């Protein structure tokens, strides 16, 4: 008899679902190529010599990769300085699906893991089994979905970037409005915009999203703003949810920094549901090919086409040929192929060539990439002329788009009436179409006015913060100079040049603590006594003024990477103002710090003075108000993991309380004033974009239950079925 281990496992292994990876290897002859591939099959799976897992054993037959074919490449690369021993070979290796665990990180590990550290091997192509493909949902929108979302049924879609880094929030919002007014479909953050002090993330997202909405309301277009999610790992999803709540229409992700599986996680989250644009930053370090045809890394097709698509991107940005990054035309065509080729049931995604492209190169780009493409032009569009609206319309024209003006503009400015290079015409606002009621239009106009006020408020906050920062820097510089003149032997003015164990002279402060990250930190108020905090920006209370009046806030602790299970915020209510009347399932604590106010807790009203503490129990309707003549400021401590507040109609609340309770003096007048203000603003307010993290408690409870049942590895939160 035959050894059963050598026969039965082999037959079983051949029927197991598997995926294939095509590698290109460099070797002087077939034997050298075979040695590389045989070593690769072991390295990518068991990482042991074959003598320890010999043929015929279960692990060898079911786990170790198997070379299905090896052939000399028909087309050998030719370049200056090429080594005559550099002969290219194509190998197809089969891996059992089980080696991937059905998870993207491990799949990438099996595809290239340790071998990526070696020389003379490149991942050329990837073919997944239907079983493995079924583990990933892929793009939520794809090309067809993006066209529907943006209302661009034909012709290339267009994208641009808000830049440069260092631009103020107000200026970025102004640019976003102009680009959307001119018809750019997706206005994204430049990938260098993160959470820097000159354009903090939340402030920037609110302002730019509002600016694009305002332009859409004027043109009838469906342009979207896509903020960049270049954030620490624990903040990526949080910032994505904030972006959606603030009105962003898509997001930009950088999987080379934050990870492909982070992008997949967000794409598969049913509560998120926005398009994802993939940016290639850092991924260039993993690319092979190029002018020297390097046999290393991933092919352009796989890294910038197939993998982003598998991870759920709806659009993938890459440097186009003819730009400043040196990609060849064939490499770009290969990327587009990876975006559009059959990949199970996953929809095609939009290739988005950019990377230093100019308006003059649009014609060639449209010829190569055909119609299903999104053209990305940044600096050239900004520099074409000072009129960004006209620049955007010019971009539409040379890209072959016929919708030079939006549906609302077309009533007065047919596209054929203006040359594509014309300056932006003045849009005359006429009466709405017959299907829009006067009441609805009035509400929309009031909301637009409020949005503009909010943007102005944000700009004022930013400018005040910048002024205070510059004054502090000026004082610090003056203080350092004075100290130098007074005492030369302490000229360093800090810790850097003092020996350990010595005592620092008076006035030498400790170094500033970090703002972001899980580090111990201190944020001081300025010496002028104002109720602000150095390095902490003042923010709007919420996005809409319908449910509140005269409120602002500072996020002090818990939102910048601290591991606290609570958030500490400072709120300030102007004289005659109030916070939203609401209830929620979480609790919070309030401590008065400045001025005098009052808190509504259910049917009762209580005064809150400096030093007073108030607790709001889960489910209680509550509100803070200021009837005084100076600002009312208070600290609010709330759980980091909390549900969305539910706004309460002050008119209905007053009616309900009047039926059951005697009303305290002033309560009726306060609620009636709020009801009048709320009605004038068009009803419900937009929810606070960073007041809640939906579903976290439920998901954690489900996870704990799964762990107890022994199925934690199978539980996938938010997975579609």
Word description of this protein:
The protein is α/β, with parallel strands linked by helices and 721 residues long. The protein is 33% helix and 18% strand. The chain has a six-stranded antiparallel β-sheet. A four-stranded antiparallel β-sheet has the order 2-3-1-4. A four-stranded parallel β-sheet has the order 7-6-5-12. Strand 18 (597-601) and strand 19 (604-608) form a beta hairpin. The longest helix has 49 residues, at 438-486. It is globular, with a radius of gyration of 30 Å.
Numbering strands along the chain, what is their spatial order in the largest sheet?
A: 13-14-15-22-17-20
Rg over alpha carbons: 30 Å
Terminal CA distance reads 48 Å
The counted number of beta strands is 23
Largest sheet: 6 strands, antiparallel
> Helix tally?
20
Tell me the helix content.
Answer: 25-40%
Structural category: alpha/beta
Oligomerization state: single chain
**Net shape:** globular
Low-pLDDT windows of residues = 1-11, 414-437, 480-494, 685-697, 710-721
Strand content: 15-25%
Mean pLDDT: 84
């Amino acid at each position: 008899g035959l050894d059963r281990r050598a026969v039965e496992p082999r037959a079983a292994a051949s029927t197991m679902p598997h995926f294939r990876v095509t590698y290109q290897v460099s070797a002087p002859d077939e034997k050298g190529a075979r040695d590389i591939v045989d070593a690769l099959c072991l390295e990518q799976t068991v990482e042991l010599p074959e003598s320890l897992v010999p043929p015929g054993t279960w692990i060898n037959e079911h786990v170790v990769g198997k070379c299905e074919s090896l052939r000399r490449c028909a087309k050998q690369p030719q370049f200056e300085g090429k080594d005559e021993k550099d002969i290219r070979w194509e190998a197809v290796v089969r891996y059992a699906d089980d080696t991937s665990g059905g998870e993207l990180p491990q799949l990438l590990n099996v595809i290239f893991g340790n071998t990526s550290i070696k020389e003379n091997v490149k991942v050329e192509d990837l073919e997944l089994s239907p079983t493995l493909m079924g583990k990933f949902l892929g793009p939520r929108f794809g090309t067809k979905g993006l066209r529907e979302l943006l209302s661009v049924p034909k012709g290339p879609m267009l994208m641009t970037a808000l830049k440069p880094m260092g631009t103020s929030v107000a200026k970025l919002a102004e640019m976003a409005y102009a680009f959307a007014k001119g018809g750019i479909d997706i206005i994204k953050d430049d990938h260098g915009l993160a959470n820097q002090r000159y354009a903090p993330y939340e402030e920037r997202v609110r302002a730019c999203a509002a600016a694009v909405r305002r332009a859409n309301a004027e043109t009838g277009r469906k342009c979207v703003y896509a903020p960049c999610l270049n954030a620490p790992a624990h903040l990526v999803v949080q910032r994505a949810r904030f972006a959606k709540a603030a009105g962003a229409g898509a997001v930009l992700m950088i999987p080379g920094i934050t990870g492909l599986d982070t992008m997949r996680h967000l794409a598969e989250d049913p509560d998120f549901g926005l398009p994802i644009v993939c940016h290639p930053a850092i991924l260039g370090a993993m690319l092979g090919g190029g002018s020297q045809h390097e046999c290393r890394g991933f092919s352009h097709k796989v890294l910038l086409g197939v993998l982003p698509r598998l991870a759920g991107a709806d659009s993938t940005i890459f440097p186009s040929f003819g730009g400043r990054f040196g990609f060849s035309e064939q490499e770009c065509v290969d990327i587009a192929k990876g975006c559009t080729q059959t990949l199970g049931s996953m929809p095609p995604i939009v290739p988005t060539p950019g990377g230093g492209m100019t308006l003059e190169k649009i014609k060639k780009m449209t010829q190569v990439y055909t119609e299903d493409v999104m053209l990305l032009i940044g600096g050239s569009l900004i520099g074409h002329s000072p009129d960004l609206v006209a620049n955007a319309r010019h971009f539409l024209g040379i890209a072959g788009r016929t919708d030079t003006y939006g549906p609302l503009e077309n009533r007065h400015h047919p596209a054929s009436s203006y040359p594509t290079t014309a300056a932006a015409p003045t849009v005359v606002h006429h009466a709405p179409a017959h299907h829009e009621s006067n009441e609805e239009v009035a509400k929309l106009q009031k909301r637009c006015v409020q949005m503009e006020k909010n943007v102005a408020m944000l700009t004022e906050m930013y400018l005040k913060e910048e002024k205070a920062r510059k004054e502090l820097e000026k004082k610090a510089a003056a203080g350092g100079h004075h100290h130098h003149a007074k005492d030369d032997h302490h000229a360093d003015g800090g810790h850097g040049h003092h020996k350990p164990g010595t005592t620092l002279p008076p006035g030498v402060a400790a170094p500033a603590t970090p703002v972001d990250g899980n580090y111990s930190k201190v944020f001081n108020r300025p010496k002028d006594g104002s109720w602000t905090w150095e390095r902490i920006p003042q923010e709007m209370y919420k996005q809409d003024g319908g449910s509140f009046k005269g409120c602002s806030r500072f996020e002090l602790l818990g939102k910048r990477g601290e591991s606290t299970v609570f958030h500490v915020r400072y709120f300030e209510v102007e004289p005659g103002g109030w916070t939203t009347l609401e209830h929620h399932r979480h609790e919070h604590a309030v401590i008065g710090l400045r001025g005098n106010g009052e808190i509504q807790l259910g049917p009762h009203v209580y005064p809150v003075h400096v030093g007073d503490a108030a607790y709001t129990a889960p489910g209680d309707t509550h509100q803070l108000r200021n009837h005084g003549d100076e600002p009312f400021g208070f600290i609010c401590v709330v759980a980091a993991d909390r549900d969305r507040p539910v706004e309460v109609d002050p008119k209905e609340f007053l009616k309900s309380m009047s039926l059951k309770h005697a009303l305290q003096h002033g309560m009726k007048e306060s609620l009636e004033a709020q009801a009048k203000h709320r009605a004038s603003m068009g009803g419900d307010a937009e929810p606070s974009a960073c007041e809640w993290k939906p579903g976290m408690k439920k998901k954690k409870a489900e996870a704990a239950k799964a762990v107890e049942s022994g199925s934690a590895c199978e539980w996938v939160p938010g997975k579609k079925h």
